[in-house]
UniProtKB/TrEMBL annotation:
Protein name: GS catalytic domain-containing protein
GO molecular function annotations of the record: glutamine synthetase activity
Pfam families associated with the record: Gln-synt_C
Gene3D superfamilies per record: Glutamine synthetase/guanido kinase, catalytic domain (3.30.590.10)
UniProt domain GS catalytic: residue ranges: 126-435
Native species: Calycina marina
Keywords annotated in UniProt: Ligase
SMART domains: Gln-synt_C
Family that this chain belongs to: Belongs to the glutamine synthetase family.
Length: 435
């Protein structure tokens, strides 16, 4: 059978064998997972070791806890460390060729927590929980969802501790052809080609409304697959931009000035009013997940009401068509598994109560008219405020469970305390290095 044979009939072995038959040049495999703080982590294994893992359906053991122990500013949260190890479970069905790195492929992993009861060992893994939620929504509510993301990224000259990042000098106009008349256009095309070759159905890309700011959008797919795709897309963009000779002085920036709008559609439009009414009720408490960085909040304008609309771009939630909605505040510093898990969980908590959908806002309303519409809550203006609101949401805390809630609040509170002691440029250097 040769080196490419996995010599097994289990689904993992068959998936890897089929992948290698079509991609003989692959030498390295990237096992990836995303921490609670939104940082993509990676272990690279050889082809021979990948064959062994798949053949025996084995896992990779790492020191515990790999989802939560590391801090954004560097270092380890020692009061969260514990003895033992955690297990990375490869999802071989997510294998993709890294068209941005010759000879490499990548796939996502789920994390099994050490030292827990068997039926609770995946309760802290956002990716596992998202799959569990997908199954529950179908079995209990007969609901299925599709999801997609808008990917906005900005080209900058890298920041140092003493020198702020500088935006690439392109046209500031949305859709401007002038912004694409630069040495970076071939690199943007290379990114799109890499994504398309990996099987991601990219629809378009264009300039956005700032220097060096661009956006791309992809077709929608099932929830967890959509998030896996987003992780791959971010890695593609960052790697190609950083390695490009045409844009060698530029760095890709996923930060507070760029959004990561979430598009969500549901299979039963007759349930959408109750579903999105529940999300609106918890939307302020959810901000700690979709605006999770200390510097996420400059994007939040003063008096930004929690409401929905159809053509009003000032609304945080926009209805695009029956059953199809856009969340406009999320940014690319979020853990997308956690953020989508929290948002959809909020929508399902009280869906059976058939809560009427209110809080619709129209353009041009003054504060009194807004109040007359029953709109009273605003998007939080800081990470500290967001976390405080999340702590108060009993129903959301119970639905997500203590396994996620306690760890997330502990880490985000520590991050907020650490980041507020830094200058804006010090924080930017850290965030741009990771995101």
């Amino acid at each position: 059978m040769g080196e490419m044979s996995v010599s097994g009939t289990n689904p993992s072995a068959l998936a890897l064998q089929q992948f290698l038959e079509s991609n003989e040049s692959i030498r390295f495999f990237r096992l990836q997972w995303v921490t609670y703080l939104g940082v993509v982590m990676m272990r690279v294994i050889t082809k021979q070791y990948a064959l062994s893992l798949a053949r025996n359906e084995n896992t990779l053991s790492l020191s515990s806890p790999i989802l939560t122990v590391l801090l954004l500013a560097g270092g380890i949260m020692f009061d969260d460390t514990k003895c033992g190890s955690e297990l990375l479970w490869p999802d071989w069905l997510t294998l993709k060729v890294c068209h941005y790195q010759t000879g490499n492929s990548s796939f996502m992993c789920c994390v099994e927590e050490a030292g827990t009861e068997e039926d609770k060992s995946f309760r802290r893994c956002p990716r596992s929980r998202l799959q569990e939620l997908e199954m529950m929504a179908k079995s209990k509510h007969d609901l299925e969802f599709l999801m997609g993301f808008e990917v906005e990224f900005q080209l900058t000259k890298p920041a140092t501790v003493s020198t702020p990042a500088q935006q690439a000098r392109t046209s500031m106009h949305v859709y401007a052809a002038a912004a694409l008349r630069s040495s970076c256009l071939p690199v943007l095309e290379e990114i799109v080609d890499a994504l398309v070759n990996s099987g991601i159905q990219i629809r378009q890309f264009h300039a956005e409304g700032d220097h060096g700011l661009f956006e791309s959008t992809a077709l929608h797919c099932r929830r967890r697959s959509a998030v896996d795709t987003l992780v791959y897309t971010h890695e593609t963009i960052k790697t190609i931009m950083l390695s490009s000779t045409d844009c060698r002085s530029e760095k890709t920036r996923f930060s507070q000035t760029t959004g990561a709008h979430i598009h969500l559609s549901m299979s039963r439009t007759e349930r959408e009013d109750a579903f999105f009414a529940c999300i609106l009720k918890e939307y302020a408490a959810l901000a700690g997940f979709y605006l999770p960085n200390y510097d996420s909040y400059p994007r939040v304008k003063e008096n930004q009401w929690i409401a929905w609309g159809t053509r009003n771009k000032t609304c945080p939630i926009k209805k695009l068509s029956p059953g199809y909605w856009e969340f406009r505040h999320p940014d690319a510093t979020m853990n997308p598994y956690l953020a989508t898990l929290a948002i959809i969980t909020a929508g399902l908590v009280d869906i059976e109560t058939n809560t009427p959908l209110t809080l619709r806002i129209h353009e041009g309303l003054d504060d009194q008219q807004v109040a007359d519409h029953g709109i009273t809550d605003k998007i939080p203006r800081s990470l500290k405020e967001s976390l405080a609101l999340f702590k108060k949401s009993t129903s959301l805390n119970e639905a997500l469970g203590p396994e996620i809630v306690e760890k997330y609040l502990m880490h985000k509170s520590r991050e907020e305390e650490s980041f507020k002691q830094m200058t804006a440029n010090e924080r930017k250097v850290i965030s741009m290095g990771l995101f």
